[in-house]
Amino acid sequence: MINSSNILLKNSRKFALDYSCNTCSNHNCLIKKNLGNLTNETFVENKKTLKCKKGQQFIIEGAPVNGLFFILKGTVKVFRTGINGREQIVRFAKEGEIIGHRGFGTEEFYSIGAIALEDAVLCYFSKDDLREALLENPKFGYDMMLFYADELNRSESKVKSISQMTVRERVIDTLLYINRKFGDLRGFLNLPLSRKEYADYAGTTEEQVIRVFSSLKKEGLITAKGKKIGINNIQSLKNEISEHNYYLDS
Length: 250
Hints:
alpha+beta, 2 domains, 4-stranded antiparallel β-sheet, about 40% helix
């Protein structure tokens, strides 16, 4: 099996000088937050900076875990393969977020795959360098622990919502999730997705998503133009799924 991340790493040297953690604008990044707490300067110096084209897969599900990716620029789709090879989108990630953390620690293989939804720049830290930095810097280790606890809470909330929501509610929940996380651009959600991608995140079929979108359009709650979706009445959508605590997943 070819590991896409290894191919990216081989081509990373020419980009390494272009991006520095000290000048990074992603202040929500765990590395950026802890720059002042890191005692070993070689940790950030050993970072690899990778450029990933739109549609390129940089983590292959089942590949050996070599390290973690932090998104410097761009948007990423994180997914895993379900029954009969069906894709289930776990989440969409943006600048400052971590990719591949579920494989870090005791697991030896990535349990997810990751694809760039647009041209992206990724910061890569090897698992050995990360392990050493976490052991040497208590504040960094504590922040990483809080990150994992928050991720667990989000995962449990999503499992609960999928099991208790109707198909319509799951599609609405997905629209609100995209809106909260990526915002609005000229009246449309700032993350154009295919109907299949909506279905793969909501845990339903493409046909069901099309039906729900059609109903929401007739009710005047959304506007659709190709892959672009605009929310016309966000409060009505929130009210429809308010009992499920939609706001837990951001």
